[in-house]
Write a structure and sequence with these properties.
It is built from five helices and no strands. With 144 residues, it is an all-alpha fold. It folds into two domains: 1-56; 58-144. The N and C termini lie far apart (89 Å).
């Protein structure tokens, strides 16, 4: 019995040492100890590079990047709407609500929230489209 306890204690000590070395490795990478560039430093360097890039752009280039960002947002919001509607089609096609009664409450809550989600995404799409329209009108009539 004593041997089993000491063996268990030795195994626990080894496991604890392994976890401590793993935690120390992660902390060293994050805080940049040990000569390697840490994750936080890499993020800050990338952010500074991006900031320097934006500082070199003129006004029209900045508006073009804003326009592209708006288009990407519209694609992402449209994708969210399509996945929401497609998910509902899959739930009704495979009759998941009746096959898995434990998920029925989750599906009912999902149905209530999906209408708000779709409406919110459409609202945001219209805001972005309206903003892009105003920016394009300003570029076309004022800056040229």
């Amino acid at each position: 019995m004593y041997n089993a306890i000491t063996e268990f204690k030795t195994q626990m000590t080894k496991t604890n040492d392994t976890y401590e070395s793993l935690i120390n490795t992660i902390q060293n990478r994050i805080t940049c100890k040990g000569g390697n560039s840490g994750i936080s430093n890499q993020f800050l360097e990338s952010f500074k590079d991006l900031q320097n890039f934006f500082e070199t752009l003129n006004f029209i280039d900045t508006l073009a990047i804003l326009h592209l960002s708006g288009v990407l947002f519209i694609f992402a919001a449209s994708w969210t709407i399509m996945l929401t509607l497609f998910g509902e089609k899959l739930i009704t096609y495979f009759n998941i609500e009746n096959k898995y009664p434990k998920l029925a409450k989750f599906i009912q809550v999902r149905r209530k929230l999906q209408n708000y989600s779709i409406a919110f995404n459409i609202f945001l799409i219209f805001i972005v489209l309206f903003s892009i329209l105003i920016i394009n009108i300003l570029i076309l009539f004022i800056l040229i």
